[in-house]
Specification:
three-stranded mixed β-sheet; 81 residues; 40% helix; 3 strands; globular; alpha+beta
């Protein structure tokens, strides 16, 4: 018996997250990277402070919700400098 798993568009998840980061003037997107595998989105890099850290995660979540983009999880691997 074959178990069907939910398919996620990893390329679209990464592309959309990168668009969100680039378009937000509060985020220094040049040192943030985004990867996705089977809908698990990993955000890594360094951030200036806790505000930027929280803002990045919330901006990506809102951006995904706004266009109805499905994801399994967002993993925060950023570090505050």
């Amino acid at each position: 018996m074959k178990i069907l798993s939910k398919k996620y568009d990893d390329k679209l998840l990464v592309r959309q997250a990168e668009r969100i980061l680039v378009s937000d003037p509060k985020i220094d997107h040049s040192i943030i990277s985004v990867n996705s595998h089977k809908g698990v989105v990993t955000i890594s890099g360094s951030v200036k402070n806790e505000f930027e850290h929280n803002h990045i995660l919330e901006a990506i979540r809102r951006g995904y919700e706004k266009i109805g983009l499905q994801y399994a999880q967002i993993i925060d691997a950023t570090m505050v400098r």
